[in-house]
Each structure stands twice: as structure tokens, then as C-alpha cells.
What does this fold into?
Amino acid sequence: MKLVKTLHSHITSIICIQETEWVDSKVRIINRTRNKVGMMVSEKLVDQVVEIRHKTHHIMSIKLVVCSEILTVASAYTP
It folds into this structure.
């Protein structure tokens, strides 16, 4: 719940998460998977996501268009 509150307080727009299984109704899901990594994107940016890529079960990336620039955010998990 603390992650959702952080996103909604506009301090953070993207959070990379590992090994989570819960979903909150206030956060829009852009991709649901059984992989070990995931990302939470604030509602103000979710429509700007243009690509979601799971390279392995432990590595993923998303691409966003922000101010006409392409921003890539990657998340990796090593157990």
C-alpha cells in the first residue's frame, strides 16, 4: 500500500518492483505477468507507455514517450 500512496502523492511516477502479487484498484495495470519483476506507472504516464518487454523472467523494460523523447526504464531482479 505504501507504494501506491507514493505514486499518488506525485513524488514518484515509476516504481520497479520484484516478487509482488497484489493489485490495488487505484493503480492501472499496464501488463500483468507471472514474472519476478514488474513496474508500477502513475496514471499520468500510463498512456505514454509505448512498449513493454520482458527479456527474461528477471529482466523487463518499458519505453515511454515523454516530451517527444523516448525514455527507457529497466528493472532487473537477482534472487
Summary: The longest strand covers residues 49-56. The chain has two helices and five strands.
